[in-house]
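pipeline/complex-builder :: batch 7 item 3
reading input block
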Amino acid sequence: MIAYVLRRLAYGFATVLGVLAFLFGLFFLYATPEDMARRALGDKAPPQAIEQWIVNHEYHHPLFWNPENPGKTLIVDHYRRMLTFDFGRSDADDVRVTTRLREGVGPSLSLTVPLFFGGLVLSISLALFVATFRETYIDRAGVALCVLAMSVSILLYIIGGQFLIARILKWFPISGYDADPAVIARFLVLPVLVGLAASFGEQVRFYRTVFVEETNRDYVRTARAKGCGDGRVMWHHVLRNAMIPIITRVVLAIPFLFTGSILLESFFAIPGLGSMTVDAIHANDFATLRVMVFLGSVFFIAGQIVTDVCYTLADPRVRLE
Amino acid sequence: MESYVLSNLITSALVAGLALALWGARRSPLWRNAGRELARRRPVALAVVAAYALVAGLDSVAWTDPHHEVAESEAVLLGEPRSAIDRLFPADFQEASYSAPFADHELYGGEALRHPGGHWLGTDIIGRDVLHRTLKGARVALIIGGLTSLIVLPLALLVGVSAGYVGGRVDDVVFFLMSTLASMPSLLLLIALIMVLGVGTVQVCVALGVTGWVGLARLVRAETFKIRELEYVDAARVLGTSELRIVGRHVLPNLMHLVVITFALLFSSLVLSEVVLSWLGIGIEGSWGRMIDQARTELSREPVIWWGITSASVALFSLILAVNQLADAVRDILDPRTVGEES
Amino acid sequence: MSDTVLDVGDLRTSFPSAEGRVDVVDRVSFDVGAGETVALVGESGCGKSMTALSIMRLVPKPGRVEGGSIRVGARDVRTLPVAEMRRVRGGDVSMIFQEPMTSLNPVQRCGRQIVEAIRLHHPESSEEARRRARDLFGEVGIPDAEARLDAYPHQLSGGMRQRVMIAMALASRPKLLIADEPTTALDVTIQAQILELLRTLQREHRMAVLLITHDLGIVNEIADRVLVMYAGRIIEEGGRRDVLARPGHPYTRGLLRSLPGVVERGARLEEIAGVVPRPSEWGAGCRFTNRCPLAFDPCAGTEAPRVEVGARHVAWCHAAARDEGGRS
Ligand SMILES: Nc1ncnc2c1ncn2[C@@H]1O[C@H](COP(=O)(O)OP(=O)(O)OP(=O)(O)O)[C@@H](O)[C@H]1O
Ligand code: SF4
Ligand SMILES: [Mg+2]
């Protein structure tokens, strides 16, 4: 077990190195520091300004090989900084990226956590309900509704939600944020509702498929044969057996709670990491974007390892070798 | 060569390729039955998708007028290639402003519009016909889905099959590559790619392709593993059939159901991704996403300009819904695992 | 029989097919008395399991029971409210299945599954129920019961799992036990043990058993009466000795003839020339016509008549009718 976890960690680390290699290729080889400077300063910027920008951001070292100072190359810098979580300064306004991250994670979590758990409870309950009535009109209507909901772009949910609930009905403010916990809820209700609406179709359908597949198994028939009712079969037997696909999904989603929701945050003016990413895009801030991609994959890889360990808890048959 | 000639050629090639693929599929009883079953279960969705394809096709064939005796207001368009769809709409916008559907005057300018019967779905801020733009969006959507699939499908098949069939070192490398790519959050990766590659139709499709191929490649790899172990594949090998032939004869045909299912599922997610990209300002010109993004602020005008966003949204929604329904049905029909899910 | 435990009359159960719904169980009637072991035999796909599942009201969708009556004791299972039906399942009637590998919940310990079965029907404390579960394990011959209660199904052998299934089925002392091919998936020595166990339990608890099998050897060993099923219909019914020694239906005769030393355990039924017709090929007449050596004019077109070929021994066959008619 411990040996397995160690091996898993080693592979995860290798994957992180792979991600860094990819990012290096993308951000330093394909788009050179000069490109970045030109994007940041505009096409008409004088050569000196570009030169200065590059030096300021420490992008002036050679890419791979520096005969004078072997440690001072872009690739070494890139790896060293990322792996030590020393992310340097933003390309756009020279604020430390780490500071931004620390400021943004709170607002992001205040949106994504309620959204995530609300969505989980809502969609699993709905899916169990629909799967209990599989092969009936309730089920078919449920699936049709899910497909319908999935076919609407998330942008439209946001625009529609803001227009209808905030502008016409005036129930909640259109957008905004406040650190004061007393006020914050008023700002978060609408984005959470919109987020739920945008994701429930896909989620319910996924869980329903899992549950329906599970209800066709022999042990369910045994449970019925000994006198279990529909509810008991679903909640005691099916749900527990369906834990594996559910865990995979849930654990893998948790890391992304931290990176926030790009769309919801920027539409509802929540100053989280999602908003920060959007600002980075508009400001051609490659440094921040690089960090976000890197952090995202680190979280994801960690999540995967946790998932594998969770399997042993959910399924007694799984032995990690 | 003029760009519109090239695009005409590509369109014809695509249509021919599609016809050939359909004709090939008709010869296999499995696919013929699947097609019939699909038509039985989802006739409306099929018709909707066909209609979009038709509009997109008509919009892809463009030509210039050799001698034009046109009104002065259309002088802008002189010499410009115009597609079959463009020709249905008189190009009468000149610094015009919004008009509501069927309206005979503009909202802010007050000048009467010349288009007979008014614009069915109104006009946008510079007087372009909304119906015209909406119809033209179909082509962009199909390009997003189609061009990206042209990148994703061969790449995923090549990588997945070689990993699954050859195994060993090749598989290790491919697997590592795929886990690396898959571990990056897809929207962020997409954004990063486009920022680096630049904005444009091809660039966006390439970026979508890079983020999209891993899923299918994984499925293909796993399935190839299974097929490789089947008895008849062994038998073929014993008989001295070359490996390439085995792949072509036995492996690829057995992967096609995965390809079709994935394509159907991929298509809608690609088009929806582009909408988000459009909002970030890195989408494709002329897409419904662009229309929605542009029309977003119009909702706060007084009076509310609702027709632009509504038309684009409805056009987008109907296509995605139809494709999703087809994808659902295709999966039910082709994937034996979900047998028993629908009666 | 005065104390009938199960009485099935004209049961029809259908599944949709390309040609519309077909009755894969077609007008099946039989009864099982208290303490009696009735064997239901027939080839794979003839509808044995569906008959059993219809009794439990567990026919998988899209299948459904179309008609007929199913009485357990005094109650009609078909019209029972859902809550009542739950009390019948695992209460008066228990069922065990062919696949001991998959029929137990893989993520629950065996003990907990038995305790659930007990407590669903008796309001006992969980300690009491656990004690009862341990007793049941002892009764079905599971050694080291205490430890096995805490085992997960995958930690047990196939034979042990089937014993757990039987223990679960016995939890509320059912009046009727339906055993759907309980030994098919096991190897021969284990089969013998399980059958022996079933026989002992049946005798001790005066439990009625409906045993589904396609193994005539098993029939010979433990059945009191035999029902022979073919293509969704019962085609012969009678006491075990009568049916095995003097079969009245050409199909039963074929079955017996195709066995080497009349009835040995392990001998399968699939050895008559020709193939079972698919439901879409069922005509108006006798469904055995295409394989029957005695088939004659009326067979294909008119339904085979019920013929008393002996005391409490019936067959449905034109040839049998002709012969009986000629004799009397
Ligand atoms: N899920 C299903 N969908 C459609 N038809 C089914 C389904 N399950 C059973 N059937 C039909 O019901 C018929 C009877 O099946 P049943 O399981 O009762 O056979 P059986 O006699 O128990 O066979 P076996 O010895 O293989 O268990 C089958 O021939 C099949 O045509
Ligand atoms: S009815 Fe005719 S076909 Fe059927 S078993 Fe009897 S003799 Fe054979
Ligand atoms: Mg069966």
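note: Confidence is low (pLDDT under 50) at residues 266-270 of chain C.
queue -> next item
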